[in-house]
Hints:
Elements: H1 2-27, H2 29-53, H3 58-61, H4 64-93
Helix pairs in contact: 1-2, 1-4, 2-4
Amino acid sequence: MVRFLTFILLTVSIVVLVAFDVLMWGLTWKAGLAGLLPLAGFLIAYKYSVEMCIAPRDFWANPDWEIAKKKLGYAWSTAGTLLFILLVASAAVS
């Protein structure tokens, strides 16, 4: 059940990031280009979140849902940070 719920949340997160990027392409091409990197950052951070933010003891000390929340939280924080930095940089350039 947790795997299914994690899959649904991951899919919804990717759809939200793609929709946000489509909206940003409607504003300017610089903002749209800046919106691609948070999507890539989200996917990379989700893949490597186990090695970066989850301790090995978490797998036997915490339920699967807590680990899934940590993975998604790490991925969203990476995507949000990248988005903020890139939007500030694109606003400073233009």
